[in-house]
Amino acid sequence: MIVILEPNVTETQIQNVVDRIQAVGLSAHLSRGTYRTIVGIIGDEEKIQFEPLLALPGVSEVIPVLPPYKLASREAHPRGSIVEVAGVKIGGDHLALIAGPCAVENEDQMHRIAQAVKQAGAHILRGGAFKPRTSPYAFQGLEEEGLKILRAAGDAQHMPVVTEVTDPRCVGLVDEYADMLQVGARNMQNFVLLKEVGKVQKPVLLKRGMSATVTDLLMSAEYILSQGNSRVVLCERGVRGFDTKIARNLFDVATVAAVKQLSHLPIIVDPSHATGQPALVPHCALAGVAAGADGVHIEVHDRPEEAKSDGAQALLPLQFAALVTQIRQLAELFGKTLTPTEESNRATTPDCR
Amino acid sequence: MIVILEPNVTETQIQNVVDRIQAVGLSAHLSRGTYRTIVGIIGDEEKIQFEPLLALPGVSEVIPVLPPYKLASREAHPRGSIVEVAGVKIGGDHLALIAGPCAVENEDQMHRIAQAVKQAGAHILRGGAFKPRTSPYAFQGLEEEGLKILRAAGDAQHMPVVTEVTDPRCVGLVDEYADMLQVGARNMQNFVLLKEVGKVQKPVLLKRGMSATVTDLLMSAEYILSQGNSRVVLCERGVRGFDTKIARNLFDVATVAAVKQLSHLPIIVDPSHATGQPALVPHCALAGVAAGADGVHIEVHDRPEEAKSDGAQALLPLQFAALVTQIRQLAELFGKTLTPTEESNRATTPDCR
Amino acid sequence: MIVILEPNVTETQIQNVVDRIQAVGLSAHLSRGTYRTIVGIIGDEEKIQFEPLLALPGVSEVIPVLPPYKLASREAHPRGSIVEVAGVKIGGDHLALIAGPCAVENEDQMHRIAQAVKQAGAHILRGGAFKPRTSPYAFQGLEEEGLKILRAAGDAQHMPVVTEVTDPRCVGLVDEYADMLQVGARNMQNFVLLKEVGKVQKPVLLKRGMSATVTDLLMSAEYILSQGNSRVVLCERGVRGFDTKIARNLFDVATVAAVKQLSHLPIIVDPSHATGQPALVPHCALAGVAAGADGVHIEVHDRPEEAKSDGAQALLPLQFAALVTQIRQLAELFGKTLTPTEESNRATTPDCR
Amino acid sequence: MIVILEPNVTETQIQNVVDRIQAVGLSAHLSRGTYRTIVGIIGDEEKIQFEPLLALPGVSEVIPVLPPYKLASREAHPRGSIVEVAGVKIGGDHLALIAGPCAVENEDQMHRIAQAVKQAGAHILRGGAFKPRTSPYAFQGLEEEGLKILRAAGDAQHMPVVTEVTDPRCVGLVDEYADMLQVGARNMQNFVLLKEVGKVQKPVLLKRGMSATVTDLLMSAEYILSQGNSRVVLCERGVRGFDTKIARNLFDVATVAAVKQLSHLPIIVDPSHATGQPALVPHCALAGVAAGADGVHIEVHDRPEEAKSDGAQALLPLQFAALVTQIRQLAELFGKTLTPTEESNRATTPDCR
Questions:
Q1: Residues D177 and D252 in one domain
Q2: In a domain, D69, yes or no
């Protein structure tokens, strides 16, 4: 940690900063420049990480040299982690495809779509039972009924299932039905929820908040990891942008590459929520894979005009199948494996509840 | 609601859109332009608000003409609402000052600061017992112990208290101690929490999320209102900006004025979190009042270098007192009342638990 | 300047950095921490400011401790500058009001509006003769004819005039007619134009670009100052925001306060362009003054529905007059003078061409 | 164009809007809804495009149904345009690689780097002779001397050259030396410059401004096209983002796909300026190609630590060569041709000055 002092700092103030550093058992190393004096802190930076040095008189800036996340950092685990979701691997050389409708609407819809995405090559089935909707008057999801339908559809297709959990009181319930728990973008800094999903034994899909920096995202992962759950998969799904005529959010593909360098955790992309425009989804999906993503998350609906939520952003099954073909070719180019559907069936069956 | 069709829409597609509108009991009015055909929907727009018209083939854009919030809209309550917090009025001609430390640290700290802000003219005491910290390793708050200390400090100064609630399971607990419940920026779209605070009988301070539009903010208020709790106070506290060297967030003062026009709910400003810079806090506080805010929320600490959270952004009690003097003059200019300290004491005592 | 080295930096790389620093006549001061080694540079930082230290192997970050602007910095001129525009002072205790239509349309329009804003209390008349329009098909301004009309309208009302210059080849022409040259937001980093307006003897109104940081803005001012023209007035007019339903841009009032601290140059606000919404303009104007702005720039049109440019964002003369009354009261509260119209007439006449 | 009226609009106001529309020879079609009345305009929308309908009393919103750009729109030219730069094709099935140093520094540097990028497979050589630097004290470029050096280096390698023009007075000079003129991000809305480059017979590389929407970008292209120069190539190079710790700008890959749908103009990506981080450049380059970009623009320097500008973001020649190999494979997958170096030599020689 480096402390930059104010131009007009007094000797007493400098001494005060040094005393404060020494009080926690660290050494301070002064460097008096022509314009500014700086203090280097020598020793275990963590000891002072949460000391309010910045509020000391005479202090202008405090610059940490270590990232604030530890368990999530690449240093903690130099080889990238591979997270397994009921037999489906995400990370390393394994590129995973997660697909399904925005919301679980009914049994028939879920089975139809599950079959379609399975056939197209998807590995994990998604579907929302608890929907965090902007409006209190919008469809809020089928709740436990939805979880049951999702589970049944996944089982019928031999696919693991992922679904969002929004309430710390429902983590146990969702855990009963799902193979992977999703924390949505709006809850990325719902630390209470993060702690709860950190206590279960299932992998967690953590979506990046709309205004979250990479540090924010990795700190939220750190919340889950620090509770003992090491199976976190990150997801880039667009940040707030100023050109909402083009896309709902701004798909930040550089962050995928940056996260791969800073962290060992797998990261996938969700171009459906990132753009909200079916015409842009395939292009962004491919861009994400080319940038190094470990998977792709796509919303698929066979009757989007009947969808109860986000129908307009879903791909049709045929469009999804065409995209999978392209993703497969791209994956091969980058030395990644996209498990063929048939083998995937056999492989995942025994694990699959 | 207006539906703009694609340039190359077919007659069958047009008929399909019209049928869909009529199916929910509304009328469709076609207008065929030179380049585009548009469909005006006549009747109760709400019937179709969540129908996925946008996903119908041939539809290019759907433009609602009504705001999606109802209870929060100015139309619902043409005179601005006044929210009372244990005798302290916020809204109308009443400008309220909320002040206190970021976190409740201990009894002595809380009593010292409560006394200081009370003396300076603050009406409501703030202090966090449940702290939503970016890092799992940072101080997370004293929890119930903190609530007790805050309550005692408020009582000693005859001030109502406001504190943040982060967990739907703790709403009841916080309700026992606090006069006003705060929902923080990171939880603005934690709809589960919003529903819970919508069920209590206490006023709620709802802070704007860092990437929330005004519609998002008012929809979150609508969640609370729709549960039966009509006492919501909004708070502008800065959005994500690109110049973080200057201020932590971008203080959006135009939103204060816009919210006053679109909604009847009071809105206050929090320049402490908006800027994170004590040198900018007074300027932004005054700007907020000049733009029409119904109150100001300021972090105050008498020993910022000892603060366990956000010490570097707090004003010293003397700085706060100087600011209150300026706010009082400004309030008078705008015909608003900033209740004098002494009277406020007497007024609030009987209400105060 | 502080150079933070990579965790795995080699001794040879460290020596290379030190050599490089010493090669330009500066001293290097090493501080070896537990995790990182840092190099403090002692001596005249400017000597190395544009050396690509960051590209040296082993260098992780380079942190300047001096701002990159010198002439524009508060240190260069601890007392705030007062810029005089043909007798009208901007800065210090002088709050200036600049008003007029977006574009000069014709003689009659310009004279009517000039009279109206003069009567309401404006000090400087604005009007565009060269319009930087987003569309090549939109009205591009009356050019020299417009300058003549503006000059005549200003003279008739004894008001100095400000108008935008967009072409380095037209700086001389605009200089012939105007008392102050405006560089628009879209040209804030048109460095060729900045250099040209730096060579004239007239004050320059430099508007902040839509994505300019405060450093960017002050560096653009530095371009003008470094050419010998010390009379620069800055203008905050909104940055790109994500909620364009509420306002065209995001009015950044904290920047006004920050600029007053970092620079000696006066800064005014332009709520007309910042919001694009007449209903928000007065609130943001007052917020700007409360935050410390040295003036306000407002678009006024008496027949907005006939305006050839930006009619929908202009205030009517009556609305402007009401706002001036409020600004005057606010200015007094902050110990600032808003020269009474009558005196202003007399004072500016002799200077006025 | 659709005009949405205010809820409380009067009949006189409605008539006024209708009169205004009819006055320019168009028809108005009223649709009275339950909450709002809307007016559809029938006829040639352009006639009224810049009429300030929005400023008419009773008008709430004006929604155009045609894009404001015409020559740049996909409708104007349903097959994508191919722009030829001295024999090198950009667009259609042709993927072009532009590479070179940020600035032309001297003959030796330019020849070394030209040879290196040519050998690696680049088609067009870049190098700045007029540098738009944020600081007036930074290296501003070698000007005409730089143009000569660039030209000679291009000729020696049989490569066309592209260089930035920043001053409308220098367009002729740059035209003498370069095969393609670049308008930089900071000048994207320097309409005076756009008009000048619209008058020359050379292709133009138009970079997106940091806060430009897609509409803004295409309108700037329209300025050039409307002057008679149809050879415009667009370039995505990142927009302002909030996470500047990760990347200098936010690389907006969805915009590449969106522009391909809205416009016939080729669009390339510049990951060097978009990220400013060599470690992210290859990932973003590949993402851009996967999203459909017609070319890639990369800064390359063989001695970045000696570079006079932006050295820290350049790739080394070896890194660039490795990237070209990956781009070539990716291009093939998408059915695009990346002309082999040898053939390209032969092909471009005769065209090349």
A1: yes
A2: no
pLDDT (tens digit per residue) in B158-214: 999 999 999 999 999 999 999 999 999 999 999 999 999 999 999 999 999 999 999
Whether residues B21 and B169 fall in one domain: no
Cross-chain CB nearest to D255 (options A246, A256, A292) = A246
A neighbours by CB contacts (3+ pairs under 8 Å): B, C, D
Whether D287 sits inside 8 A of A283 (CB atoms) is: no
Number of structural domains found in chain D: 2
D56 and D89 both lie in a single domain:
no
- Walking along chain B (353 residues) 10 residues at a time, the average pLDDT comes out as 89 93 89 85 76 86 87 94 97 97 97 98 97 89 97 98 98 98 98 97 97 98 97 98 95 98 98 96 98 98 88 93 97 87 40 29
Q: How far is CA C78 from the centre of its chain?
A: 19
Q: Which residues of C touch D49 (CB under 8 A)?
A: 135, 137
Sign of the CA dihedral running D275, D280, D284, D287: negative
C24 found inside a domain: yes
Which pLDDT score is estimated for D149? 98
| D323 and A CB contact within 8 Å | no
Is the predicted pLDDT of residue C352 greater than 60, yes or no? Answer: no
| D83, β-bridge pairs | D90
| The domain boundary residue, chosen from B63, B88, B111 | B63
Say if residue B270 is exposed, middle or buried (CB neighbours under 10 Å; 0-12, 13-18, 19+). buried
The domain spanning residue B272 has which CATH number?
3.20.20.70
Residue B192 lies in a domain: yes
Lowest mean pLDDT, pick from A33-37, C186-190, D147-151, D267-271: A33-37
- The answer to whether the CB atoms of D287 and A253 lie below 8 A apart is yes
Range of the domain at D170: 74-348
Q: How far apart (Å, rounded) are the C-alpha atoms in residues A93 and D274?
A: 28
Cβ count within 10 A of residue B244:
17
Here the ipTM equals 0.93
Q: What residues pair up with C89 in beta bridges, in sequence order?
A: C84
Instruction: Give me A329's structure tokens.
Output: 């070719």
Taking alpha carbons only, the member of A306, A299, A102, A305 closest to residue B56 is: A305
Q: Strand, coil or helix: what is B76?
A: helix
The minimal CB distance from C166 to the residues D20, D138, D191 is found for: D191
Q: pTM of this prediction?
A: 0.94
Sequence-ordered strand ranges (E) for B8-152:
27-32, 37-42, 59-63, 83-85, 88-90, 96-100, 124-126
In a shared domain, residues B54 and B9:
yes
- How high is the pLDDT of residue A353? 30
pLDDT attached to residue B64: 83
Contact list in D for residue B21 (CB cut-off 8 A) is: none
Indicate whether C69 belongs to any domain: no
| Same structural domain, B151 and B194 | yes
pLDDT score, position B344: 43
- Give the phi and the psi of residue D146 in degrees, each rounded to 5: -65, -40
Residue A38 is nearest to which of C2, C34, C45, comparing CB atoms? C2
A-facing residues of B in 214-233 (CB < 8 A) are 216, 219, 222-223, 226
pLDDT digits (tens, 9 = 90+) for D5-48: 998 899 999 999 999 999 888 889 888 887 888 898 888 777 77
B49 and B184 in a single domain? The answer is: no
DSSP-based three-state secondary structure for C294? coil
CA distance D127 to D145: 12
Backbone phi and psi for residue B58, each to the nearest 5 degrees, phi listed first:
90, -10
Q: Cα torsion for C177, C181, C186, C192, to the nearest 10°?
A: 100
Q: Are residues B59 and B79 in the same domain?
A: no
Domain co-membership, D208 together with D273: yes
Give the minimum alpha-carbon distance from A63 to chain C in angstroms, rounded to a whole number. 10
CATH number at residue A36: 3.30.70.1140
